[in-house]
Amino acid sequence: MMQVTSKYPDARGGGGDMEGTGSNGEDMQMYKVDDARLPLSRIVPIPANQLNLYRIVIILRLIILCFFFQYRVSHPVRDAYGLWLVSVICEIWFALSWLLDQFPKWYPINRETYLDRLALRYDREGEPSQLCPIDIFVSTVDPLKEPPLITANTVLSILAVDYPVDKVSCYVSDDGSAMLTFESLSETAEFARKWVPFCKKHNIEPRAPEFYFQQKIDYLKDKIQPSFVKERRAMKREYEEFKIRINALVAKAQKVPEEGWTMADGTAWPGNNPRDHPGMIQVFLGHSGGLDTDGNELPRLVYVSREKRPGFQHHKKAGAMNALIRVSAVLTNGAYLLNVDCDHYFNSSKALREAMCFMMDPALGRKTCYVQFPQRFDGIDLHDRYANRNIVFFDINMKGLDGIQGPMYVGTGCCFNRQALYGYDPVLTEADLEPNIVVKSCCGGRKKKSKSYMDNTNHSF
Questions:
Q1: Domain with 426 in it: what CATH number?
Q2: 435-450, pLDDT tens digit by residue?
Q3: Is the peptide bond before 39 cis (omega within 30 degrees of 0)?
Q4: Do 54 and 139 belong together in one domain?
């Protein structure tokens, strides 16, 4: 319903520090209590002097179009009446399309979020966090077309987000049932044990290692820990070794054995036939084994490859998303769902908190179905001569749609309210979970065919 901006004003909307004037900081305490009751976001209208000129141009074009069509209709071409009529109809259609395209641009808006108010309300220091759990879905199909290293960077940026770790779960959907994806995700889980504490200790941004180490900026800026340089060099070496291991897996996967892939225990990989295989679920990180090198808990990381059977149209992304919704409902059942493509990493560690400023707002949260994040693109020339950044779409059209109703869902970077998708509050009790048996490993053991793990449909949201 809303588009998130990336501004972090203070609680009053301005800059500067605020100090308590009472001897025991009573004024500061009252200030914090008042701030906790304020809205978590606000609409920032674009100044009229920036829009009026464009609006005047729209009106002038509309007037000129009216005169044009008055002339066209009043002066028919008698010698080619059919062609004249067709051309007039086409011109009216193009004019109507142009007019509909101008409506969203008439009243664009920006939005600001207040992360400090969110923390005061739901995440106070020294108290258990009341932020809602979020299940994050990453979709991938073919690891030879969607490089596993890019997917790994996306997953690492998710695992390192600035959010309570017990409330973050990352589900990776492998719709190609590729053993390469499974093994690269296993390597990613091991590297995350070192990368996540490094990011949180030194406030690294962005938290995708490939793009962090490629930055052409002064990485020592605002870093005051004397050990930072040494730890950064060590982490960069660790990442280079991680890349070597991933690239070795990719090279190995180039030639598929005639009998198909086999696992370490000698059994055949269940996904050798991507069109006919059982569902596979593997929990790489979680409460039972998700600790980093500092002994702190890591977010959950789950590999999912939905069941495929011949004769069913279940090879599209929408069906994979439905399968992830059902699996996550059994394992974690987060109140909110965020889906991203495998090549869309988080460029801000506070992205989830920004979404919660809308979803958990006491006034607007219950009316919000989803929050659509804008996309930003790397590797584009400085002048963007081919318009690959989609600036017009994300910074003009989407903000304009937000001003009249709400931006559309673009397929990635969208945080959904699970209740809005279900149509009711999806709260599961222990009795509801009893019929479901979680798989021991991705391919070992048998399980009951539970509806939560089955998906043969291809619905869209």
A1: 3.90.550.10
A2: 544 444 444 333 333 3
A3: no
A4: no
- Does residue 140 sit in the same domain as residue 250? yes
Residues contributing to the annotated binding site for UDP-alpha-D-glucose: 139, 145-146, 175, 316
Residue 183 lies in a domain: yes
Give me the chain's average pLDDT, please.
Answer: 81
Q: Are strands 168-174 and 2-3 parallel, antiparallel or unpaired?
A: unpaired
Measured N-to-C along each axis, helices 228-253 and 148-159 cross at an angle, to the nearest 10 degrees, of 140
- How do residues 238-272 score in pLDDT, each as one tens digit? 999 999 999 999 998 888 888 888 888 888 888 88
pLDDT at residue 414, as a whole number: 93
Whether 340 contacts 136, CB under 8 Å: yes
Q: Say how far apart CA 139 and CA 118 lie, in whole Å.
A: 29
Q: Which amino acid is at 453?
A: Y
Residue owning tokens 């200790």:
201
Taking the C-alpha atoms of residue 407 and residue 413, their distance in angstroms, rounded to an integer, is 12
pLDDT for 339: 93
Q: Domain span at residue 71?
A: 48-102
| Domain membership flag for residue 459 | no
Number of domains in the chain: 2
Binding positions for Mn(2+) are 317, 341
Query: What's the pTM?
Result: 0.80
d(CA 386, CA 370): 30
**Residues in the annotated binding site:** 139, 145-146, 175, 316-317, 341
pLDDT digits (tens, 9 = 90+) for 304-338: 999 888 877 777 888 889 999 999 998 988 899 99
Residue 204 and residue 318 in one domain: yes
Helices and strands (DSSP H and E) totals, the chain: 14, 10
Asked, for residue 125, whether it belongs to a domain, the answer is no
DSSP 442: S
Structural domain contains residue 311: yes
pLDDT tens digits, 391-412: 888 888 888 888 887 888 888 9
